[in-house]
């Protein structure tokens, strides 16, 4: 399954927003700077996250983004759905009803076996994403990061957050 770059960018942005002190925010430009991303494209991902309630935003001088709920209440599936939408990755178009050996619509009483197999696989994938919270992902990162890198990040966040 291929997910867009927007999912990666949105998830990384959420991890940075989770590190913000309470009542602080980061602008879309600052988040784009942190990862050297195009700010206009990242802003679209942030807006999708805002519509999904994953982040909150404020306008004006010092405005920006912060998480909309605690990191332990945001799953990776929440982020994927915000960016990619809720539709399944595999969409059966019933091609078994086409061609010289086509099945009649009336004979298609059960779901297509191929669609069913892909549906089962996608459900396992979605369950794994639903089980992984942003908080648990950050805990893994902190456990694997060097203290120097964590200090660099904390300093940057302090400097850029308003």
Automatic annotation (TrEMBL):
Signal peptide: none annotated. One of its GO terms (molecular function) is DNA-binding transcription factor activity. GO terms for cellular component: cytosol. CDD domains: HTH_ARSR. It holds the Pfam family Rrf2. PROSITE patterns: HTH_RRF2_1, HTH_RRF2_2. InterPro entries: ArsR-like_HTH, TR_Rrf2-type_CS, Tscrpt_reg_Rrf2, WH-like_DNA-bd_sf, WH_DNA-bd_sf. NCBIfam families: rrf2_super. This is Rrf2 family transcriptional regulator. It comes from Pontixanthobacter rizhaonensis.
